[in-house]
Design brief:
Strand content: 15-25%
Number of domains: 2
CATH topology of the largest domain: Rossmann fold
Strand order of the largest sheet: 2-1-4-5
Distance between the termini: 31 Å
Radius of gyration: 17 Å
Order of helices and strands: EEEHEEHHHHE
Length: about 190
């Protein structure tokens, strides 16, 4: 079983409009997934189901060896980066990256080390003292990715246990040849 298993996930709205029609995806630890498709094809719906913000009409979601299909969002340890970036304008980049870890009571030395590590990976190291209003659009989109790209260095995007799913990837990441593609390795450079 992979780090994330999506099995026959379907989603129907208003009892008639079928958005997801039996999605099957298996993602191994360390793989990076990009969802690409036109507006309204179900990318954000699938990500919301994975994160527990919405429930599938049928099918199952497994994270590692746990079936999380019926688990509340707060118990999945999943993070989503929404397209609006959701940055705190009064905090600098380092503070925005560290905020979630601080709320989870991660020790300050570990927070600081993690901020430095992910900032270096996402080419934000020189920008840690800047406020969001002082960043370009591309830099601004990397800050919430860094904030959710924590603890597990072997996984391309992760929190302490689970992959991170980003609806903004559909419009911002380098698309591959098919609608749903996973590939091992680091995220695309931005």
């Amino acid at each position: 079983m992979g780090a994330l298993s999506i099995r026959q996930v379907k989603k129907t709205f208003a009892g008639q409009v079928q958005i997801l029609k039996g999605i099957n995806i298996e993602i191994e630890q360390g793989e990076f997934l990009i969802l690409v498709g036109p507006s309204g094809c179900g990318k954000s719906t699938l990500l919301s189901i994975i994160a527990g913000l919405d429930a599938p009409t049928s099918g199952r979601i497994h994270i590692g060896d746990r079936d999380v299909t019926d688990l509340p969002s707060k118990d999945r340890d999943i993070a989503m980066v929404f397209q609006s970036y959701a940055l705190y304008p009064n905090m600098n980049v380092a503070q925005n990256i560290a905020f979630g870890m601080e709320m989870r009571k991660v020790a300050k030395p570990q927070r600081e080390a993690t901020v430095q590590r992910v900032a270096a990976m996402l080419q934000l190291g020189a920008l840690l003292d800047r406020k969001p209003g002082q960043l370009s659009g591309g830099q601004r989109q990397r800050v919430p990715m860094a904030a959710r790209w924590r603890a597990t260095p072997s996984c391309s995007c992760s929190t302490s246990r689970c992959p991170t799913w980003m609806p903004s990837c559909a419009s911002r990441c380098v698309p591959r040849s098919r609608c749903c593609t996973s590939a091992p390795g680091p995220p695309p450079s931005m």
